[in-house]
Amino acid sequence: MTPAVIDDTTLYAVLAPFAAAVVAPFLTRLLKHNAAWPLALVPALIFLHFVGFIEPVSRGETFVAAKAWAPSYGINFSVYVDGLSTLFGLLISGIGTFIILYAGGYLKGHPQQGRFFSFLFMFMGAMLGLVLGNNLISLFIFWELTSITSFLLIGFDHLRAASRRAAIQALVVTGGGGLALLAGFILIISATGEIEMSVLLGSPDIIKDSGLYLPIFLLVLGGAFTKSAQFPFHFWLPNAMEAPTPVSAYLHSATMVKAGVYMLMRMHPLLGDTVLWTTVLPLFGGVTLLVGTILAVRQTDLKLMLAYTTVASLGLLVMLTGTSHEKALEGAVLYLLAHSLFKGALFMVAGTIDHEAGTRDVTKLGGLRKAMPVTFVAACLAALSMAGLPPFIGFIAKEVLYYGTWGWLELGLPITITAVVGNSLMLVIAAAVAIKPFFGPKVETPKHAHEGPVLLFAGPVVLALTGLFLAFIAHTTGILFVGPTLSSLLGTFTEVDLHLWPTKINAPLILSVITIGLGIFLFTQLDRLREIIASILKSIGWGPDQGFDQFVSGIVRFATWLTRLVQTGKMQTYMLLTFFFTALAVLLPGYLTNSFPAMPKLPEHRFYEWGILLIAVLGLFAILVARTRLTAIVSLGVQGFAVALIFMMFGAPDLSFTQFMVETLSVVILALVMTRLNLSPRDHRTVPARLLAGVVAVAVGLGLGLTLLSITQQPFDSTLSVFFTEFSRSIAHGRNIVNVILVDFRGFDTLGEIAVVVLAGLCVLALIRVRTKPDTVLDPPPERTGQSQNAEAR
Prior knowledge:
By secondary structure, the chain is mainly α. The chain folds into 3 domains: about 5-545, no CATH class; about 570-715, Four Helix Bundle (Hemerythrin (Met), subunit A), CATH 1.20.120; about 715-770, no CATH class. It has 31 helices and 3 strands.
């Protein structure tokens, strides 16, 4: 179905958060502690805007809107609205509304709260631009903007070294992946000739049928895997928990870390359902799922436990997307929705506990259910959904994904086993987050624990209840949200029929029972599991996080070595390197493409023409055998004078006169400089150094000569000649075409050249007028009297 063109309202919805980012610091300064309420209206209105797309998108309709951005390059600020982008738009704006409110309570009284709001809104706008992006180049710009804004948010507490390291790590990893994605987009444009995502999706086999499928696939995966923290790039996400909790709840559960999953889902019609796709994605996704859950069990910090399960959940989503199986993809969409709701709620719960109790360590928490009853209820509801228990949306997602993995013929059994183990361990973490802090005897905490303000518990309660509500209206959820999103992944309209309760005993239900039973058993052995995993990791020692530090350290050492090698402080080295790379630039392309020009026949010269060439050659020889630097400089002027004579013979007296002046001034200036500098009269370089310089010089001369030959052998384009001949008289009222070009058509260039000549003349004048000051003769000290000598002796 061809997308319908809509008005620019959706474009303004993408830009609205950036406008709010400008206003936020001033509004925060004006309203103090109440700024969160009016600021939250911005994402709330954006959410309502996307609500308007739910009904038409559920019927299979798609929409586009565009504004010219850089039309000469084919770059538009354009959006594409379908089921996938609508779902992400609702999550970004809906959860973003409560994150703004939560940040208002969490950072209440913080002197930089306005700056934090500004960064948060910039990220929100970048994320909306990413998921709605239709033009590949503008989509990439928003992709990188999410990395930059997340860097600002993760490093918000920039006075702490851990925050700075986590921010830099996230920027390096995701930014590097972004460059890979840009290369992939460029190859897509090169292979297809298209730059709009909506056009590409209209021809889903266009990339698969091209010869660039493999590099495009690898480059897109590089961007997606780094953004969504797939193994072995998973380490940056837990470290990003150094950010304030509102950042963790927003960026690292519902939005930024799902950007990679979004990209894989968006590209599924173009790249999916191939042997490479169904091999690489399930493999890396499954490993990430297991690594994330195992590392989560080891942790005792609430945020780190949730962070590692986020890594695991992203792995599960990638694994399901990689199957290209319709039911598994349906499970991926459902789980994406469920995870955004329960993980956003649980992160906010963890932050509230830390804010009101003074610690996030589960071993130092207990008995908080009476002190924090609302937070306790929200934690339980969200944890039940995370554990995949009925009657929550997480339970339905688990049933559907098991149905998909079990029914996948290729690798259904190992993928299903991986999903069961991963989901069992996630149940362990969900139980630990919901039970450990709130049950058991009351533990003395650093702060007197009490329920937080409404700004802190509104988000967790609403998100947890939404997960419950969507499960009770499962059929409607499937029609309005899951079906349209699944249609985007499959490239064809697909209807989904969801039910909360299984209609019969089948494999997915049995797998759910196994998952719950295994999870409960492992939870009872949680302390023992932590000890085992900790000992295993200690025996392994090295990991990707430490490897990142070694990688950065290696880059710094290499940069230091290269700087010391190149930046020697000697002009001789700088000139040699400059001419060396000039030679490479002019010779290497011709060698690689075998496009050197054909050598022309030597023309018949008159005797005086041969005489001028002989003068040039003799001048060159004089430079090489000169015994002093001053002699070499004077001999160098012979070359310029010979060129000036050639200009004169070919009917360009004005150009010849200019060449004479330039050469004369150059020799005079260089000679004066030589007399003022404390240099040895001769060049004392070693024979190897002279040979190297000679080889580079010959290479540069050869390369430039071949370049000039290539230019002269091209068909002559007389467009400029005809233009100047035709208009010099009629427009500039001049008969001398060269003068007209210099004075009228190239007036500003000529003015610049005159300025250079004047500046050179002033430098010559300054050098001539410099005089060495005679040594100052000091007056002899007065003779000391006998009295003063006696006094000094005493």
